[in-house]
Write a structure and sequence with these properties.
- This protein is mainly α.
- It contains seven helices and three strands.
- The longest helix is centred in the first third of the chain and has 29 residues.
- The radius of gyration is 19 Å and the shape is globular.
- The two termini are 23 Å apart.
């Protein structure tokens, strides 16, 4: 089979590197999740809430989009997390149909203990980047992510 273009081997290497990075991150997420007694997907949801909540809570829809999961799955899992005391769910003051979620004090305390080394990990992982290079890398990676989403939809339409 002929290669589609001269850069194809490099593209494949980049994709395999991204796959490896995702595997490593998934393994770390599972280990951290175990420490506080939640599943890997629940940990991912909690981390999305940490990133998205700007003080007023974040919606199921926003979390679903960030973790690439169906809103019904996120709703079910966040109800379980609420029962375990890890988050608070409350109706939005502007639209009662929307549920806003934020971490509970219990979750914040456990995360502070569990995630203490995370800053050091980030610094180690991105040690070769200057702040400007890191911003540029983030912008380029976001562009690749956007184009990958476009192709994902095309492949889905062809199936």
């Amino acid at each position: 089979m002929p290669l589609p273009c001269a850069g194809y081997p490099v593209y494949r290497q980049i994709v395999w590197d991204i796959v490896s990075i995702m595997d490593y991150l998934d393994e770390m997420r599972s280990r951290w999740a175990e420490r506080i007694g939640v599943t890997g997907p629940q940990w991912k949801i909690l981390m999305a809430i940490v990133d998205l909540d700007q003080g007023e809570g974040t919606s199921v829809g926003e979390v679903s989009a960030k973790v690439h999961a169906a809103s019904t799955f996120v709703t079910t899992q966040t109800k379980l997390l609420e029962q375990r005391g890890y988050l608070r769910r409350m109706p939005s003051p502007s639209d009662a149909r929307v549920v806003l979620m934020s971490l509970s004090d219990k979750a914040r305390k456990e995360f502070a203990e569990t995630m203490r080394p995370w800053g050091d990990f980030h610094e180690f992982i991105f040690a070769d980047f200057t702040p400007a290079a890191l911003r540029e890398f983030a912008e380029r990676l976001a562009a690749v992510k956007k184009r990958t989403e476009i192709i994902r939809r095309r492949v889905g339409d062809e199936a």
